Amino acid sequence: MLASSLPSALPASRVPDPRDAPPLRWGILAPGRIARSFAEALLAQTRQRLVACGSRSAEHADAFAREFGLERAYGSYEALLADPDVDAVYVASPHSHHAEHALAAIAAGKPVLVEKSFTRDAAEARRVVDAARAAGVPLMEAMWTRFLPHIDVARQLLEDGALGELETVIADHGQCFDFDPAGRLFDPALAGGAMLDLGVYPLSFAFFALGTPGRLTARGTLAPTGVDRQLSAVLEGFADHPDAHALVTTTLAARTATTAVVSGDRARIEIPGPFYTPQSLALIGRDGSRLDAPAPAIPQHGLCHEAAHFAQLVADGRLESPLLPLDETIAIMAAMDDARAQVGAR
User: Residues 71, 10: contact at Cβ < 8 Å?
Assistant: First the structure.
């Protein structure tokens, strides 16, 4: 029998309590479904303050402000960005409008957290990043998974070489939606499709584990509107892991397992579904030995961690996150461009 190849124990997560982050006064741009989740997370598990929201509809903004106890509601994005009491802006509009709204926030001098996918394509991402760097404004993609406790455990295992030489990363994200040609997910004008909305999670996870790939090969099928309905991609040519492959897959037409696995020649990490939420983690040796990190005992609003991380960056005077650098966000957008182009998505 093989001797156990595992460490004596899993590392503890280094993710701080989100209540420890210095409070910012937040403004929410485009108070829709994801903005509601963000607001719930901040109010339940951080000391962050929600002070204002801005919508194209004054009625919508007023309703959101009443629901979450915000001090001010604006019937335009411009009015929100002009509020001197707003320390940071969360851009929660559809990703078809992220670049426009992020650039407006940067021009107003507001640190900005931009919901994923960061933009429609890599060209837009570069414009936003260049503008933030030129203005000296903090900017981060709100890929909340990167900031969760179980992902930090995985990060430490990868940094310590606990898995040995990495061989494969496999991750998926599929949800089942009825086809609606007028719906956001199926509308090319709103940057619909599986990859930008769902596939960004497994793709970002592959970048997290292996780095930026040198090559990507994609296959997929299209919805009648021309957006990607299903897409799978093999990533290879990683500088630090030349023999490793990553397989990511996404679909709008089936609820998949949404799991993630990183395998090396000594051990593997398994994260059950949904891997992108606060979750458990298992480290499994090649002899079958196993160490488990349980899921949080108290249910978490997972978005609290990205907000707390960004608030700490702003308080520390840092312009981007070491856990998700802006150049990596651009590289992920470029990989999604490549994948969608290979399958002919609109």
Answer: no
Using the 8-state DSSP alphabet, how is residue 176 labeled? Answer: B
| Amino acid at position 316, single letter | D
Rounded to 5 degrees, φ, ψ at 312 are: -65, -40
Q: Which residues contact 88 (CB under 8 A, 6 or more apart)?
A: 24, 25, 26, 27, 110, 111, 112, 113, 138, 310, 311, 314
Nearest to 206 by CA among 156, 274, 250, 261: 261
CA distance 325 to 328: 5
User: Which one is catalytic: 98, 116, 120, 229?
Assistant: 116
* Residues 56, 63 contacting (CB under 8 angstroms): no
Binned average pLDDT, 10 residues per bin, the chain of 346 residues: 73 96 98 95 96 96 97 97 98 96 98 97 98 98 97 98 97 97 93 97 98 98 98 98 98 98 98 97 96 83 96 98 98 98 96
Which of 96, 38, 102, 95 is closest to 70 using CA atoms? 38
Q: From CA 87, how far away is CA 111, in angstroms rounded?
A: 7
| Cα–Cα distance measured from residue 267 to residue 282, given in angstroms and rounded to the nearest whole number | 10
pLDDT value of residue 3: 53
Beta strands across the sheet bearing 112-115: 72-74, 49-54, 25-29, 88-91, 112-115, 139-142
Encoding tokens for residue 258? 């949404």
116 has catalytic annotation? yes
pTM above 0.70, yes or no: yes
* Exposed / middle / buried, residue 110 (Cβ in 10 Å: 0-12, 13-18, 19+): buried
The answer to whether the CB of 263 falls within 8 A of the CB of 246 is no
User: Amino acid identity, residue 222?
Assistant: L
